[in-house]
Specification:
This protein is an alpha+beta fold. The chain has two domains: 151 residues, no CATH class; 118 residues, no CATH class. It is built from six helices and seven strands.
Length: 292
């Protein structure tokens, strides 16, 4: 006995295909929006990683990557590939801009760095956004909406190492304070010895370590000369402190010690006195070189 196989008729197949076509037509815009949203989320995640990379780079190098090398500079500080650092999720190159602002600091200056990483978004255009190149434009940088308040599809992160630099300045001030306290203790001990050995002239001598820059001034008996002329690292070592206390934490360059300074702060080594009264010693930041 023959059994007839059941199946769809041609009419039924046509109806099913027509229904599927209608469903796909309705669902496609929603699927496109879903894919676009997922891409945006991925780009936001990458931007967060780039921000973290900027922070890690700044803390290790005390600056931010330069405009021409930022991709290679940042990649070791993130799990993103070079291509993922360079390009956004839509395979379009990101833009980067860094600028510096000089800040007055203990008679000199230090640099605060500002950087912005920018993606044009899914449409691949800047939408009129200009990357900041000044402190004010950095503070007011707007990339997510235009002047009329219309939402833009751009992505960006901005970073400044100002907070890091402030901490380094505070560290330098702390080092100077510790050196000053140790200097005072050193001088007190030497002065006590001077009073006992030569009480009549004890108040006419310098009891701070001799900076070794020329022998100007009348130093008390037993006062030592630091090994490296005017270098505060040698002073720190002489006072029993870590040598890095003599470094400017902002630049990692030596600070300078003048045991018998002159009266003019702009020319600290000029006009130094040969006899009492003397000006108090100075520990100073001057990254341009030895002021004496």
């Amino acid at each position: 006995m023959r059994h007839r196989l059941s199946g769809f008729t041609l009419s039924e197949v046509i109806v099913v295909v027509a229904v599927l076509a209608i469903v796909l037509t309705i669902a496609t815009p929603d699927m496109n929006r879903l894919f676009a949203k997922q891409a945006e989320m991925n780009e936001q995640l990458r931007m967060k990683k780039l921000y973290k990379a900027l922070d890690l780079f700044a803390k290790e190098n005390k600056r931010l990557p330069n405009n021409g090398t930022w991709v290679d500079d940042l990649q070791p500080f993130t799990d993103l590939t070079l291509n993922e650092v360079r390009n956004d999720v839509w395979s379009k190159p990101r833009s980067y801009n860094k600028f510096e602002v000089s800040v007055a600091y203990m008679g000199g200056t230090y640099k605060v760095n500002y950087a912005t990483i920018f993606s044009n978004g899914i449409d691949g255009i800047t939408n009129g956004v200009t990357l900041p190149s000044s402190k004010s434009s950095f503070a007011n940088f707007e990339y997510s909406k235009d002047a009329l308040g219309k939402k833009l599809d751009n992505f960006a992160v901005k970073y400044t190492d100002q907070g890091n630099k402030v901490k380094l300045v505070e560290s330098t001030l702390s080092r100077i304070e510790k050196l000053s306290i140790a200097l005072a203790k050193y001088a007190r001990v030497k002065q006590i010895n001077g009073i006992s050995s030569d009480p009549e002239n004890s108040d006419k001598k310098i009891y701070f370590p001799n900076d070794g820059s020329g022998g100007v001034g009348n130093y008390g008996s037993g006062v030592e000369i630091i090994n490296n002329r005017n270098d505060a690292r040698s002073l720190a070592k002489k006072l029993g402190l870590p040598e890095y206390y003599g470094l400017n934490a902002v630049s990692d360059k030596p600070m300078w010690y003048i045991s018998n300074p002159g009266p003019n702060s702009s020319s600290i080594c000029s006009g130094r006195r040969n006899t009492a009264p003397y000006y108090p010693p100075v520990i100073m930041v001057d990254d341009s070189g030895n002021p004496c």
